[in-house]
Amino acid sequence: MDFDKIVKKMWRKKGGIVSIEDVAEIVDPDYPHGRPTALRDAYKICSRLVANGVFVRVRSGVFFVVDGSSARIVDIVDRNYWSIVRKIVGQEVGREYVVGGSAAAALHLRDYAPVETLVIHTRDTNKTVRIADGFTLKFRTAVGGSRSGGRTIFPALSSGAVTVRIDGVAIRTLSEEAAILDCLLEKSPEARKIAARFVKKYHGYLDRGRLGALVRLRYITALNRLRTIAKEEWYDRLYRDCLDVIRREGANCFMTVDPS
Fold first, then answer.
1. How far apart are CA 1 and CA 19, in angstroms?
2. Mind listing the pLDDT tens digit for each residue in 156-193?
3. Where are the strands (E) in 8-112, listed by range?
4. Can you tell me the distance from the alpha carbon of 130 to that of 208, in angstroms, rounded to the nearest whole number?
5. Final residue before a domain boundary, out of 53, 71, 89
6. How far, in Å, CA of 57 to CA of 54, rounded?
7. Is 171 in contact with 99 (CB distance < 8 Å)?
């Protein structure tokens, strides 16, 4: 396909985020199973698109299609944060991911603000990816301890994941129970505020069986914090459920995450 036709196709996506893989699929509709030079050709085309003012490079392999709005990276990230996240996650781990940490709880609260440090749980990837100044993605493999033989707990986290749609972008995040426990592993003031809002909204809906299964994967520290919130706020059913889970599942059980 000649360059002018590619430009016309890209203008149809103006204001959006595209990846090098998206361009490779235009160069070769059979990508990634087609000709081996498709990705290399796509990089050359993207460089021309940047030079011609069609693209703004957000980071390596991820671009903003210019639409007349601000082309400053900080503004592009603010407007397109989750689209950028999804493109990067797709490049790094495909569909084998789930959003974790306090961001998972925030997503359940329909708080879609950009996250300075977004935790992404994966099957076996541990790396940090910088999006732009002030924004990073931390890909982490959550692992169990002695009760699970130190194996990854990603399959269990992933099996209960839910999909949230943010301006048409599908993002996989933890279940309600896993989201609050993962959030409570963080100690920042912002994470504590998110946890308080989450528990206020969902305290009557958290499932005791799911909490117990997660504690067997070593969320006992987080469950103790959840128990404290439930006690202080007089969420009696949740408090009783937490005590029951601790009594049945909590012996010497702590969550560990690969260090950053």
1. 18
2. 999 899 999 999 999 999 999 999 999 999 999 999 99
3. 17-19, 55-59, 62-65, 97-99
4. 37
5. 71
6. 10
7. yes
- For residue 47, the domain's CATH number is 1.10.10
- Using N-to-C axis directions, what is the helix angle for 20-27 and 38-51, rounded to 10°? 110
Q: Is the dihedral of CA 52, 57, 60, 62 positive or negative?
A: negative
Clarify whether residues 67 and 88 are in a common domain. no
Whether residues 240 and 179 fall in one domain: yes
Shared domain for 44 and 134, answered yes or no, is no
**Count of domains forming the chain:** 2
Distance in angstroms (rounded) separating the CA atoms of residues 123 and 93: 9
Return the pLDDT at 53. Answer: 93
- Report how far residue 38's alpha carbon sits from residue 29's, in angstroms, rounded to the nearest whole number: 9
Which helix (H) or strand (E) segment holds residue 131: the answer is: strand 127-132
Which tens digits make up the pLDDT trace of 223-240? Answer: 999 999 999 999 999 999
Predicted local distance difference test score (pLDDT) of residue 36: 82
Three-state SS for 143?
Answer: strand
**What are the structure tokens assigned to 12, written together?**
């149809």
- Closest by CA to 137, choosing from 103, 180, 162, is 103
* 29 and 92 housed in the same domain: no
CB 98 within 8 A of CB 157: yes
Reading the block at residue 208, the tokens are 């005791």
Q: What is the domain extent for residue 32? A: 3-71
- Last residue of a domain, which of 71, 89, 104? 71
Are 64 and 155 contained in the same domain?
Answer: no
Residue 137 and residue 106 in one domain: yes
- Do 148 and 244 lie in one domain? The reply is yes
| Virtual torsion, Cα 152, 156, 162, 168, nearest 10 deg | 30
